[in-house]
Amino acid sequence: MKIGISEEVVRTVRIRIEDRLDAFSAQELRTHFDELFEQGVTNYVIDLSATPFMDSAGMAVLVSAMKRARQAGGDVALVWPDADAVKRILKLTHFDRVFTMLDA
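Given the sequence above, the corresponding structure tokens read:
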């Protein structure tokens, strides 16, 4: 009798952003993503529940991470923000249709 057993462990990293995600902080987040991708991480949950503000630079980092993750067979999900301004931006730009959106 031949039995083949294999196990695949999928690692998901949760990143909670508790400050503004803007042109000043976006590069720091991009650096963290670069390090995690180098370690082979391809699945992410980005928790925006405590993010009070996000601009186009922050959004660009999220799109870039999503593209990289999907190319590697993973994905990026976003946790809905509590801040109405950030929630509005996600809806206006249709991020809520492109990303998997999770409740906090």
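Residues 56-71 form the longest helix (16 residues). Try to locate this feature in the token string yourself.
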